[in-house]
Amino acid sequence: MNLPDLQSYRSNFINKGVQLPLPIVSGTENGLLHQLPPPPFGKTGWPWDEQVAQTVYDNKINWPKLTIVTPSYNQAGFLEQTIRAVLLQNYPNLEYIIIDGGSTDQSKQIIEKYAPWLSYYQSEKDNGQSHAINQGFSLSSGRYHAWINSDDYYLKGVFHKVLNKFMSTNADFIYGYGNDYNVVSGKTTTTRVLPFIDYFIKIPSLVQPSTFWSAAIHEPVWEELHCSLDFELWLRLVKGHSRALIKEPLSVANVHDQAKTHSPKMKAQWEADHQKIWAADAHGTVYEWKKIIFFNRIRIKLYKVFGYYS
């Protein structure tokens, strides 16, 4: 497993003239809703004509810096929703970075429209999602990290809930439930994540856009992976560290034909990632993984028996 050196990425940005640390998102005491570009015609509700009230953030608290990275490529139909759902949290100490891989749709124009409220953005050819994420975090100066893909978005008030959880628990890793919204049927389903011990980290159960972690435990993403990059990251990043579960949805993943998780075209790539992750020189063997799956089924049944699922 060859992981990139984030310091080398950081040095490349510095050599290009990027000034570090990046500026935080500039806000106002009344929030950003009326400062941002107006939403597209007919768009209402969160995150179009609603915002988190800035008054929810107690000004007596020194809110820690939160870094959000959005890797972007040809998701113009969803990207503006993603951006607004970050900015309209009105979090008082936010570093927001967008790394676009040279999109050929309207993504660049959307990003540029919101540029005054971004800490940093670029739109140029890269080596894929993993590379974009690593580039973004190489610029980070936040105490806490998360990434949100350009076709997903955060629910209203999530940053307030998550940062309060970090401060009240001193956890290294926060995770929560997630919603899937089917853009064709209009139906929403919720993935409820179970609490887990280290042994069960090898079960792909975490909802990526509903995860946040301390910069102190951050690891680079394995760039050879194209689909299971988040799952593999958890195998290295979460084990042995304190964590806390928020038992409510924190994010929405838009389910559409081009989404990696739901596209039949990506089946071969998922299988290729699986073989890399479960190679002997990475995270074990397929046999070991199947054994863990068996014990996980027993664990889920026990949770159901004792009423974890309502």
From TrEMBL:
<protein>
    <submittedName>
        <fullName>Glycosyltransferase</fullName>
    </submittedName>
</protein>
<feature type="domain" description="Glycosyltransferase 2-like">
    <location>
        <begin position="67"/>
        <end position="191"/>
    </location>
</feature>
<dbReference type="InterPro" id="IPR001173">
    <property type="entry name" value="Glyco_trans_2-like"/>
</dbReference>
<dbReference type="InterPro" id="IPR029044">
    <property type="entry name" value="Nucleotide-diphossugar_trans"/>
</dbReference>
<dbReference type="Pfam" id="PF00535">
    <property type="entry name" value="Glycos_transf_2"/>
</dbReference>
<dbReference type="GO" id="GO:0016758">
    <property type="term" value="F:hexosyltransferase activity"/>
</dbReference>
